[in-house]
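Example A, followed by Example B.
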Amino acid sequence: MLNIFFRTAAVTGVIVALAGCATTSPIERPELRADERWNVPLTAGAKAPDEQWWQAFGSEQLDQLIGQAFAGSPNLAVTAERVFQAEQQVRVAGSSLFPSLNLSGSTGERTTDDGGSENRSESTSASLNVSYELDLWGQLAAARDEAEAGYRATVFEYDSARLSLASSVATTWFRLMALDEQLRVARENLAIAERTEDIVDARYRNGAASRAELLRQQTEVLNQRAGLEPITLEYRQTRSALAVLVGVSPLGFEADTGTHSLMDLTLPAVDAGIPSDLLTRRPDLAIAEAQLQAADANLAQARAAWLPSVSLGLNAGASTANLASLANPVETLGWSITLAQNLFDGGTRDAQTAISESRRRALVEDYRGAILAALQETDDALDRLQTSQRREALQRTVSERAERTLELTDLRYRAGSDELLTLLDAQRTLFQTRDQLVQLRLARLQATVDLYKAIGGGWQQKDE
């Protein structure tokens, strides 16, 4: 008994002494600072985005489509499954910190032939084995930390996928509304051309217009009709793309743009905050940070692999020679402390540590690059938004002037003061200015969506 005490004390002393040799130290996060203002001045009275930022556009159809996309998108469902898998991986990694218990039992019979006589023997046994690895150097805890960081990264990937999906649905929906508006403008322009054709035809029959003028106007009408086809095709294809985004079949899918036109949508003023806020507002930056935390934990494991492993074992069992002696089994009880240290591995641990350090350095640069890209995306979105706003205001004035010019030219043509070519030029100019106005409104809406996405769309990191 005294022998056992001394052996136990000796091993315990070695373990305590080695615990002081642990070299896994915490690794500091990189500090990256950004300027406190954007290159483009912010709009006065702008509001910070809500988590459901798309509702600020005032489109019930858009709100319904994004809700449908969240519920039915296959890509989002795949990302959700990855979150579940990562959560289970945390359980797997965490289980190593607890003892392992194994229960086994057996019974059997053996017959031997000894010179013509049979000898039969029976045996029954049961045992309980308990094993536990002491995590003196934090290697097992680091493995759990790596799994937890990986889980957080997948949660942020899911949040990022939701943000990207909502942005894609919004921009596709706005594009569909713009095409619907362009079709309306094109049909109005066609109606103007057809009315002009009737006027030219009447003037031709009265001898006030030439055959060439009539053919020219008929050609213009045909061109206007032909111009409807590519817009209609793009409308159908955009509608199909929207169906896929929301997770339904494009066959038979209808997207009612409602009674509101593109020009009726609300254009929210978005507060982009200050550049340093992006570090906590964008899920993709949270992904990069979580991946860096996982790399830290992986490096801690690689460093801890240089230190000895210590395991405890306990075994209890009972056995009998036959079933009749179950009441008086032979009982056994044993324990063990195992200390293992790799003395030579051909440089494997050196290489694994170097790989972990290199991966961490690469992730630091990825993190820094993601921050720089986020700053650029936000500043560019602000620039596009303000530029498109100014261009739309100017284009609206141009469109009003073109409409007035056509009215006057039409009156002058009817009175015989202007030629048909002048009238045709006025018609084309009006059509082009109206079409350009629609495209600029679309650009402004898309720039607003880009800005929402660039600043994280009201996303906030939730406590796990």
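Example B, a separate protein, is given below in the same form.
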Amino acid sequence: MQNKKWDFRILSAHGLTIILWGTAFPGIRIGLEAYTPEHLTLLRLLIASFMLLIFACINKMHLPELKDIPIIFILGALGFIVYHIALNYGEQSVSAGPASLIVSVTPIFTASLAFIFFSEKLKLNGWIGGVISLIGVAFLSLGDGDLLHLNSGVLFILLAAFSESLFFVFQKSYLKKYGFLSFTTYTIWAGTICMLIFLPGIDQEIINAPIGVTLSAVYLGLFPTVLPYIALAYITSHTGSSEATSSLYLTPVIACFVAWIWLGEVPTFISIVGGGITIIGVLIAHVTGEKDCYKQNENTL
């Protein structure tokens, strides 16, 4: 039987996620030059929600059941409010490349949460890889290499990764019910509605922001805010949350390259060491676990 992991559509969804999310990290750094973390998040979500509204009207998308609205708002808050605001605050002091490397621990958080809440098996390599990745994050948290200075932005980015993991783990049953396109749309709309409390003052920031910064925010809203989530929801609906988040492995490669070209960010030696350790930990924890999981699935067919 054909391995779903190598289905062309799933591989394409992975590729789309890697490229667009890789460009998001430097895009956020640009956006934060003129927008607060809250307003940058709101602007992204407003743009994304408007585009999805057009899509929903054209396709006559049905509204969710009333009983599911509370969980849609909770997941929307986790996946689109806490994640984006925390990441924005983190990137105020953490460069785009290291930020993307820290977010790459999301698959480990996801696997751990799936183990805790749904009793999905997490093998020894998962725990070992998790510890190694956290050591790598500790190196990245040193920022400019000052051993006495802990970059608090790392804690915000870890919070973002954890929040995103909760979103991925608990959305699966609803993806089966509503489909990946509809449910992603619902959660983005829910997140946008909650973010409207930050609407005051955003008009002045838009007026005062350089056009290049605003265009960066528009790009974030049109592409990284919508398409990767739809792609990941598609993968999750077919293979599970752990497989879906494996897209994050190569995201730092794109993020570091784009940040170097776009922002002139050159990683420090300690960032390279920390990033290498983090990626090794993620690979140990997740890639080998994926192989074991697939072998187990084959035996059940």
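On Example B: The CA atoms of residues 139 and 273 lie 7 Å apart.
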